[in-house]
Write a structure and sequence with these properties.
Layout (H helix, E strand, L loop, with lengths): L2 E5 L5 H15 L20 H4 L3 E8 L2 E11 L2 E9 L8 H12 L3 E7 L3 H15 L4 E4 L3 E7 L1
C-alpha cells in the first residue's frame, strides 16, 4: 500500500469540499451540527487554505486514490492540525498514522493537536500516533472542552 500526502491544489478544491462533507457527517456524532437547506454541512474556512499563507491543505492518498485530508494551520510559532480525516475504508491500517507523521515531518517546530472531549476515538488515535512519533515525549492536558497534545517535531 502506497500512502502519501500531497498538497491540495486550488483546482482540486471541489474534491476537498466533498471530503469535508464526509468528515463533517462523521463528526456530527460528536458535535451538534446539521445540514443546511441545500443538504450540505459546509465548512467556513475552505477558501482560506488557498488565500492564507499560514494554512496548508493536503490530500491523503492510498495507491493514488483519495483517502482523506490533513489541514495544517500555523499560528505564530505553533502548528496545528486544523482538521484531519481518513475515510472509513482506510482506517485502522496505518493510513492515518503515516499521514500524520508526514505532516509533522514537513513542518518542524512546536505542534498542538486537539480533540473535543466527546471524541474518544480521536483521542485514542492521536495519543497513540503522537506517542509513537515522539517516542512518548509529549505533554497532554485536558480542560472543560478539549484534550490537547503538545510536542516538538
Amino acid at each position: 500500500m502506497n500512502i502519501i500526502i500531497e498538497k491540495a491544489l486550488r483546482k482540486d478544491k471541489s474534491v476537498l469540499k466533498q471530503l469535508m462533507e464526509f468528515y463533517l457527517y462523521d463528526f456530527s456524532e460528536f458535535i451538534n451540527i446539521d445540514v443546511n437547506e441545500h443538504g450540505y454541512y459546509g465548512y467556513t474556512y475552505i477558501d482560506h487554505y488557498w488565500t492564507d499563507e499560514n494554512r496548508w491543505p493536503f490530500f491523503i492518498k492510498v495507491d493514488g486514490n483519495f483517502a482523506g485530508f490533513v489541514l495544517v494551520l500555523q499560528d505564530k510559532e505553533e502548528y496545528y492540525i486544523s482538521e484531519f480525516f481518513v475515510m472509513k475504508r482506510y482506517r485502522r491500517n496505518g493510513v492515518g498514522k503515516l499521514a500524520a507523521f508526514e505532516a509533522f515531518k514537513q513542518f518542524k517546530g512546536k505542534w498542538i493537536v486537539t480533540q473535543i472531549l466527546s471524541n474518544k476515538p480521536a483521542q485514542h488515535f492521536w495519543r497513540s500516533a503522537i506517542s509513537e512519533f515522539t517516542g512518548g515525549d509529549f505533554v497532554e492536558t485536558t480542560d472543560e472542552n478539549v484534550v490537547k497534545q503538545v510536542f516538538v517535531s
